[in-house]
UniProtKB/TrEMBL annotation:
The protein's name in its UniProt record: UDP-glucose 4-epimerase
Keywords from the named record: Carbohydrate metabolism, Isomerase, NAD
Known cofactor(s): NAD(+)
PANTHER family reported for this sequence: UDP-GLUCOSE 4-EPIMERASE (PTHR43725)
Gene Ontology biological-process entries: galactose metabolic process
Residue ranges annotated for the NAD(P)-binding domain, each copy included: 6-329
EC number(s) reported in the record: 5.1.3.2
Residues spanning the signal sequence: none
Amino acid sequence: MKQKILVTGGTGYIGSHTVVELQNSGYEVVIIDNLSNSSADVVDNIEKVSGVRPFFEELDCLDYEGLNTVFAKHKGIKAIIHFAASKAVGESVQKPLLYYRNNLLSLINILELMPQHGVEGIVFSSSCTVYGQPDELPVTEKAPIKKAESPYGNTKQVNEEIICDTIKSGSPISAILLRYFNPIGAHPTALLGELPNGVPQNLIPFLTQTAIGIREKLSVFGNDYNTPDGSCIRDFINVVDLAKAHVTAIERILDKKQKQAVETFNIGTGRGLSVLELINLFEKSTGVKLNYEIVGRRAGDIEKVWANPDYANNELGWKAEISIEETLKSAWAWQLKLRERGIQ
C-alpha cells in the first residue's frame, strides 16, 4: 500500500473521481466532506468503481478542532488534495461572504495543521478564473493574474497567495497549484458524476437535466460576446483526465521531484469550444435534441479562455486524452443512470 492521502471535498464531483484514481494507483485515501453539495452514498459508488472503500469523515473544514482530530485519528497522512470549497460563479456574486468564509478559512485551517501532523505537501484545486480575461490566448502559466470577475475567482487568487506566503514564511511543506479549466463528463461506469444539490449552477448538469426533461430549457447566457458565434468560449476537460492530473501532482510531491516549493500548472485540453458549439456536439454525440434559449449575459462570466497545457504535458508528464464527444456521452450516460436509480 502506498502512502495515505487526505482528500477534502472527496465526495464532490472532481473529488470523487480523484479518489478513484488515487486508489487505482495504490494510495490509501481519507475523505473529509461536509456533504453540502454531495451525498454520503458517493462513498459506496467509489467502492463499486475502485473495489476499495476510502475512509470517510463527515466534517466541515471550517471546524479546526474537528480537522485536528481527523489528522490525529488517521496518522501518517503524507499529502492533501484540497477541493473543499464553494464553487459557483453566479452564486458567489450573490453571496460573497459565504464564499470568502468557506474558501479562505478552510484552507487556512489546513495549512496551520499540516506541519503539526507531518503532512508534506498540498495539491490545491485552483482555477483558470485567476487569469480573468487573458490578454493572449491560449493562456500560459506566465499570464498575469487579473482582477477577479467574481468573489469565487477572487477566493482562488487569494488562496494561491496564502499558500505562497505560508511556504515563503518557512512552513515545511510544498504545494502544487492546479489551475484547471472547465471539468465536465462522468466516470465511464456511470457510477460517478456531477450531481449538485438543487438547481445546477454549472452548464453540463443543467444541460443534461434539460435533455432528460427535469428542466424546461437551458439558458445560454449571452450571444453578443466577441466570439465567432457570440457565446462564451471555454476549455472543457474530461473529469477523469483532470483527476489523473491530481495523482500525477501527488506523486511529484512525494517523490521530491518539484523544482521549487510552489509549482503551478494549467490543466486543460488546449481547445476552446463555445457554449453553442458544445450544445451542437452534445446533440450530435447523443442524438438528443436540446431545448435552449439565448438570454442576457450573466454577472462574472469571462468572454473566452482556453489553456496552453504544454508545461503540464512536458513537466508534469500529464496530458488530456479523452475526446469531447466521449466526454459528452459519459455525461448523458450518467444522467440516464440517475433516472434508473430514481434520483431527480
